[in-house]
Structures are given as structure tokens and as C-alpha cells.
Amino acid sequence: MCGIVGYIGKNEAKPILLDGLKRMEYRGYDSAGIAVLEGTNISTCKKEGKLSNLLSALESQEITGRVGIGHTRWATHGQPNDINAHPHSDCRDEIFIIHNGIIENFHELREKLKKHHELTTETDTEVLAHLIEDEMTEGVLLEQAVQQALSHVVGAYGIAVVSSKDPEKIVAARLGSPLVLGIIGEGEFIIASDPTAIIPYTREVVYLDEGEIVTVTPKGYDIRTLENITVTKDVTKIDWDVAQAEKQGYDHFLLKEIMEQPEVIHNGIRGRLIPEEGVAHLGGFLQKEEEWRKIDRITIVACGTASFAAKIGATMIEEYAGVPTRVEIGSEFRYKKPVLDDRTGVIVVSQSGETADTIASLREAKRHGSLTFGIVNVVGSTIAREVDSGAYIHAGPEISVASTKAFVGMVNIFALVTIALGRQREMSLVTGQRIAKELTDIPKLMDQVLALDKQIAKIAKKYYALDHAFYMGRKYNEPIAYEGALKIKEISYLHAEGYAAGEFKHGAIALIDDRFFSVFIAPQDSVYEKNLSNIQEVRARGGKVIAVTTEGNTDMENFADDVIYIPKTLEMLTPLLSVIPLQLFAYHVAKLRDCDIDQPRNLAKSVTVE
Prior knowledge:
- The chain is α/β, with parallel strands linked by helices.
- It has 3 domains: 3-238, Aminohydrolase, N-terminal nucleophile (Ntn) domain (Glutamine Phosphoribosylpyrophosphate, subunit 1, domain 1), CATH 3.60.20; 245-449, 3-Layer(aba) Sandwich (Rossmann fold); 453-592, Rossmann fold (3-Layer(aba) Sandwich), CATH 3.40.50.10490.
- Strands 3-2-4-1-10-9-11-14 form an 8-stranded antiparallel β-sheet, with helices on one face. Strands 5-6-7-8-12-13 form a 6-stranded antiparallel β-sheet. It has a 5-stranded parallel β-sheet with strand order 18-17-19-20-21, sandwiched between helices.
- The chain is globular, with a radius of gyration of 25 Å.
- The model has no long low-confidence stretch (mean pLDDT 92).
């Protein structure tokens, strides 16, 4: 979840490190710091809080050198403060390390190290610096010391290390946390936990796999396993540019990414959907088409927002492809005794492709011989490399911590998977054609919903000062209720609960009062009348209601205080439209409450720790 960046080359390291940290601040913003080598001298600066605090401190501190590492932190062990900020050092300030992940045996290691080391922080990372210190005896190279130190570690890590005892070198390693090596040119390299820090300098990258360690010098790079076996890796080209990771005139990344959603759907179906034939040509699906014919049931594993997309996908697959499908939360699935075999398809969903619990679940599925399929956004990510096959969302970089465009991208891919599975089985040509045609029309329908932004901003002014909200829906829009509630919690800190509308009267309705408002996602679909009954139950108790319904349904104005209309589409595709008003509403509420919209408190973008 933290941001890691390292540079070695011909230019001053400090501005490159700070630029990288700025581009990765969404990965953690509790504190930030850098360490830069010039000869055998290491200069450091680190500060609690956002990157701006570090930048202010550096105005009065001259730091030069062409080798360095930088870090922006999402705190796990120890409070966010100057002392616990990275980089961390050994007793002599000769070794500096930055770390993303969690060292699970940190207490045990700490107790041993305390006997002959002075430990000054509350972090688990500091023990790594002292372990390396113990291993770096006379004649031992930095990469050898790092390799030996990591043999004592249990847990997850992405690390980068520099040392004045072995200068002109960065050593980096990963186990459970992503790292990418960017090749800028001869003798010039950049290392990061996220490609967003690399793309201003190069698109030529090498992705480190689990249990690999890279040594980078001006002469080149060397990749080995932790068992010291040399690894040869292909160079990959990043397929998006700097502009996609910038605000481009919007006040916030979140608003920009909401507005990009029609393009996400267009990119996701391009070359994959053939409406006249009613088929979806997903390359990753076609790779294993015969294996999918033999699948009796499907388990979808995801976390957070991705799990709500998964719930929509599960309903699609069961209704249109006839395959029993269940959704499991990654953090729970990995500790269960799952019923998996070679006739079970396991679909794992993650924007980053690096979600720790989802990766662990994927590996459990593979151990049981299940066929695995990944739905991810980040090319070259761990999940993308480890699944049997998969499909990229093609949403481009999503910088705001709260996910929007990646969510609709996931739902879009599930629609394509549903067509592919359904046409393998009993879905008719006519049904396939209709879904494909409606899906093709979704981008222009999304544009119509996005045009309601000013209306939704006015509605937000009526409710932003209230303390609590219920979000309710049924069938395909039950997960949208959860997603809508999550969005407003994440970015405005307003307390909200997502509910299956039919369950509302089984206890939760007791909470309705004048500090509560309710949002109903109630398009004119197969469960519309049931939703209407639930709305009336809230109104009968004096509750305020915002309703999202289908264009032309003016009767809703008799039951709801405020109504937002979305265009008509197939019931299974309504979530792609109904989620947009909830995203915009959350954005405007957060803006009115003066919240940090792109970097909400206590959150980070990619959850790479358990």
C-alpha cells in the first residue's frame, strides 16, 4: 500500500524521487521520506503527513547525488510521525531501507536484535535494516546481505535498499508486494511499486515476480531468486501515457475518472464484442474455452469495490449462462476450507492485480486444480501473471483512492464473460445479440447520466449536513447499494449502510429519523414494485428519500423527495448506469464537507497487506 521509488543514473536523484512520490502519493500519505547517496555520504529527510510537508522541509536542506530511494507511507506498525517515516537505517546510518508490506515475525526478530542493536522506531521495517547490518560483514556485497537477511523474514515485502558501504547500487526485492524496474537508458534505471512513477521517464519495464531480488548499478541490472538462481526476464512496454495519470483540468482525479467511464466501456468491448453474432471474443476466455465447457460451478473472489462488481457478475452468470456462481470475500476465503476441484472455475477480481487477500485466494484455487481467470486493470500485475487466463479492464490508471471507473470496467468484463459462457451453453443467438447490442449502447447512455452532474450537485446540498444514510436496492442493484454507501463513506466520511431493500424491515428500519436519508436504486425492472413498497415504508416513518429510477417514470416523484433519472437498458446492465449518480452524489457531498476527495483519511489505493 506504500509507495516505493528508487533512482540510479546520470541525473540528480532528488527531483526524480519527489516526482515519483507525488505520482504515487495515493498509495499512502501518512508520511514521506528520501535517502540520497553522493559518494559514500547518505543524506536523508523524512516528515509526517502528506508529501507537501517533506517538500517544505527540503527547501532548506540541500541534498545531492545520483542514487536514491523514496517512500510514501500508509502506516501499519507505529503511528504516523517523523520517527516512524521511511527510510529506516541501521545503527551506523550506513544502510537505508524502504518497505511496503508487513513482517509477520517482527516481534520475534525485534527481541533478538534489541540485545545488540539500538532500535528507535515502532515499525516492523526497522528490523530489516538491522538484519542487513548483521549480514553485511567485511567483503559481503549489499545484495548478498539483503538476500541473507530476508531468509529470516516471514511476511510480505517490497523493499529497496542503499548503503554507503556498497555505493552506486540499489538492491530491491519483492514477496507479496509489487515492484517494477524501469529501464530509462544506458546506466539509468528507476524502481517503483507502481508504474505511475515510471512512465514520465520510460515505458520499458521489467516486472519482478515473487521471491526475486534485483541489483541495479550504472552498469546494468541482475535479477536472481532468493535462492540465488539467475533469472532472465522479458522487457515489457507500458501501454498508457503520462497524460492519463494527470488531472487534465479537473479539480480532482475522482471527478475525472467518473467522467472517463464511457470511454472505459468502449475500450473494454472494442475488438471483443460482435453484436451481429451475439458473441464475446475474449482472448483470455478463448485460450481455455474447452476447459470452461467442463466447468460445473464458479467461485468469484474479490475484496472491497471489486466484490460488489463480482456480486453483479454472479447474478449475470447464473441468470444468463446457467452456471451456479457464488462470491467470496478474499480475506475470508483464504482461511476457509474451500470446496474446489478441477470442475470449479475461480474468477479473481482486482483493479491493481496486487490485492494480497485475492492473490492468496488465487494460489489456493490453483493448489486445488481449479481453472482460474483474472479480471484486472494493471498490466503485468501479479494476478495477471499467475492466472490461467484473464481479461484486462482497460480503464487506464486510476489515481483516486476511491474506485469508480475500474468498478464499471469490472462489471463490463463480467457482461462479456456472461455472453461467452452463455453462448457456450443454452443462451440463444437472439439473447446474445440483444445483450451485445445494449452493451454497445452503454457509453452514450452513460454520457446522458453524466450530464446530470449539476442537478446531482444541487441535491447534494440538501443532504450533505445529515449524519447517516441508507442505500438500498434489489437484485442487480443490491450491490450498487453497497457500492454507493461505500463511496460516500470513503470520501465524505458520512456514515452510510448498504442494504438489500427487502431486508431493511428486519431491524434496520428502527434507525430512521430526521438525521437519516435513504437512497433507493429502483429502475423499472423485475423488482420495481418491491422497491416501491420499501420506499413507502421509509416515507411512512418520516424518512427522506432519494430515488434513482428509469426515465419516464414520473410516478416516482409522488414517493421520493428527489428523483434522478437514468436511461432505460437491459436489467442486467442497469448497474453500469445507476452507479454513476451515486458516484457524483458522493463527490459533491464530499466537496461540500471540505474533505480530501482523492486521498481520504486512513485509506490507500492498493491493499497489498493482509
